[in-house]
Amino acid sequence: MSWITPLPQLAFGAGLAVLITGVAQAQMGESIERSTFGQLPDGRDVDLYRITNANGIEMRVTNYGGIIVSLRTLDAQGEFDDIVLGFDSLDGYLSDAYRKSNPYFGALIGRYGNRIAGGQFSLNGETYELATNNGPNHLHGGDKGFNRVLWQAKPFDNHEGAGLVLSYVSADGEEGYPGRLDVQVTYTLTDANELAIDYRATTSEATPVNLTQHTYFNLEGEGSGSILDHRLMINADAFTPVDETLIPTGEIRPVAGTPFDFREPTAIGARIDRGNRQLEFGQGYDHNFVLRRDSAAGDDPALAARVWEPDSGRVLEVATTESGLQFYSGNFLAGTLVGKSGESYKHRSGFALETQHFPDSPNQANFPSTILEPGETYRSRTVYTFSTRSREETGQ
Ligand code: BGC
Fold it and tell me: How many angstroms separate the CA atoms of 383 and 389, rounded?
């Protein structure tokens, strides 16, 4: 269903519906405005929302795939840069070249983030067949995952911040999954320089659900080159090793003494090319980390990772209610896609920190369950916080 909110119904007070020249752009309040991003091949219009906070952080999100198209934050010198990979036009996300390399820039991922072995799982005595769209495996929800559907978007501006509620109804049987899944994802940009992402879903039948967000960051600015000098801390004592097709073996392996030990801040590139079977399989980091949960956090998001980029001084902190974090170091970026800055996105020029349950959980008895039952509500929250620290402040 294509959706356009009649502007007078939006609860943003007076002075709405100001038409800005040229493009169909409407002022929707101090901190959020909508414009047209393009049209899908079937003729449906796609919107772009520009959300800003009191400190000038600006995020642009489209209702196609819930994609975060851009995110401008301050560096330690007070300059803004766009720190996420992506394209300025819808066509960038629809092009053949993009679909062939399928990096899922900035998109919402569902029904199942990461891989399901052999595109198959059994549930309540039935075997379900899914698309094998990544070698022998199913990846990120299949041929037409949530990254490629049009979401309904509802902007809001409240005491917490400004943002968008994105809704999508995944029909019973869509991409081979059982049950009708009603999904809601809320992006909130706060004045405390946080981007909060709240996921909710309900289902009509038991089904696996593992939602995530696939933004690639480069804290020096998208298009500025390698991310290998970013210093990464991951709050995890263990990770889940994979086989050569990137399916977890089922083992939960301590990170101690391996290149997967990021408990102390370490440059992403420091050990990435070390002879290590796991790094060979991923062509770098492409692994799920088993997050350590600070018990004081209760049900609230707990610190999962922190990244500091020394030249810009930008810091990204990730907190989540999830048990896993997929750290992907952009190994499959191959310089074939040209992004917003006009630069091609080369090998390891962006990284993703995807908060989620563990890959292939529907086939792994010892992993926390990802099955959502009718009558239950799937809830998950991840908060990305943006700040800066200069080299002097960190003593490096
Ligand atoms: C996966 C990678 C994959 C990338 C883009 C990540 O979540 O772990 O293996 O290449 O998404 O599809």
Answer: 19
The pLDDT profile of the chain, 396 residues, written as one tens digit per residue, is: 222 232 222 333 222 222 222 233 455 545 999 999 999 999 999 999 999 999 999 999 999 999 999 999 999 999 999 999 999 999 999 999 999 889 999 999 999 999 999 999 999 999 999 999 999 999 999 999 999 999 999 999 998 899 999 999 999 999 999 999 999 999 999 999 999 999 999 999 999 999 999 999 999 999 999 999 999 999 999 999 999 999 999 999 999 999 999 999 999 999 999 999 999 999 999 999 999 987 788 889 999 999 999 999 999 999 999 999 999 999 999 999 999 999 999 999 999 999 999 999 999 999 999 999 999 999 999 999 999 998 888 877
Residue 320 annotated as part of some ligand binding site: no
Instruction: State which H helix or E strand residue 283 sits in.
Output: none
149 token code pair: 């559907």
What distance in angstroms lies between residue 248's CA and the mean position of ligand 1's atoms?
14
Asked whether the beta carbons of 37 and 46 are under 8 A apart, the reply is yes
CATH number of the domain encompassing residue 316: 2.70.98.10
Catalytic residue among 214, 230, 287, 357: 214
Domain that holds residue 266: 4-394
From 104, 216, 329, 354, the mutation candidate for ligand 1 (largest count of ligand atoms within 8 A of CB) is 104
Q: What's the number of domains the chain is made of? A: 1
- Select from 278, 328, 345 the residue to mutate for testing ligand 1; criterion: most ligand atoms less than 8 Å from CB: 328
pTM exceeds 0.85, yes or no: yes
As a dihedral over the C-alpha atoms of residue 333, residue 339, residue 342, residue 347, rounded to 10 degrees, the angle is -10
Question: Nearest CA to 351 among 320, 333, 328?
Answer: 328
